[in-house]
Amino acid sequence: xxxxxxxxxxxxxxxxxxxxxxxxxxxxxxxxxxxxxxxxxxxxxxxxxxxxxxxxxxxxxxxxxxxxxxxxxxxxxxxxxxxxxxxxxxxxxxxxxxxxxxxxxxxxxxxxxxxxxxxxxxxxxxxxxxxxxxxxxxxxxxxxxxxxxxxxxxxxxxxxxxxxxxxxxxxxxxxxxxxxxxxxxxxxxxxxxxxxxxxxxxxxxxxxxxxxxxxxxxxxxxxxxxxxxxxxxxxxxxxxxxxxxxxxxxxxxxxxxxxxxxxxxxxxxxxxxxxxx
Length: 277
Ligand SMILES: Nc1ncnc2c1ncn2[C@@H]1O[C@H](COP(=O)(O)OP(=O)(O)OP(=O)(O)O)[C@@H](O)[C@H]1O
Ligand SMILES: [Mg+2]
Known about the structure:
The protein has helices at residues 29-34, 66-73, 96-103, 113-116, 123-133, 140-153, 170-182, 200-215, 227-233, 251-256, 261-268, and strands at residues 13-22, 40-50, 55-59, 81-86, 89-90, 106-109, 188-192, 219-223, 236-241, 244-250. The chain is α/β, with parallel strands linked by helices. It has a domain at 110-185. Helix 5 packs across helix 6 (140-153), helix 5 (123-133) runs parallel beside helix 7 and helix 6 crosses helix 7 (170-182).
């Protein structure tokens, strides 16, 4: 007998008690003088559960550990201690082909679409690349169909297929980066400040894409500075302060009745702190 209900699907991404420290470079006379040569605890005991078909917003001030948490979740960075689980499987210490196979199900979209796109790859090649790496799509035609489907889902007009990144607008570039993630049909999408470099007029459209993905069953981890956006797009919210989670819960509830002084301070520092939309 097991006390786990058989119909509860495993959580697509779970982080348990993660810690990450960075050691500042040695032989830095300024650090030695100021006594700041000690390791920086960037992430300190962080636990998160990301459910399918939901968006979790990870918020916090600059340097609070959001991107470091995301990098550990994507297994791009090793943690000092703690556990990373994909679909209930402990992947903390996987590497090589085994890790690559699991990582296909978890894709990341970064803040700067220019930096994340290969400058000499056309839109078609950019989106096809993941299929080639993971040996998906038996024929060129099958791959082309998947590329077209991903571009359509990300609302990238097909006449852009043969353009290079510098021939695209910022919003188009970020949509191409999202299409490159979607082509692998991930169960988890991590978006680290995905719209902060985009013109305000383009942000809503890109954010709607994340809502659509969530509604289609993807688990979305949205890293953002923008608390009103977190309230609009996230189901749950987790607040990080200096590497520690200080508050976690229903997004609207946390932002309308913050329990922790740090969450209150973040809200007060937000110009559009109202939760009207
Ligand atoms: N590679 C690194 N080497 C040394 N220290 C690092 C490294 N990466 C991050 N840090 C430090 O870890 C802490 C957390 O950084 P992180 O990038 O996770 O913050 P963040 O919440 O994403 O900030 P931002 O909102 O500015 O993007 C900071 O103190 C940062 O200086
Ligand atoms: Mg960051």
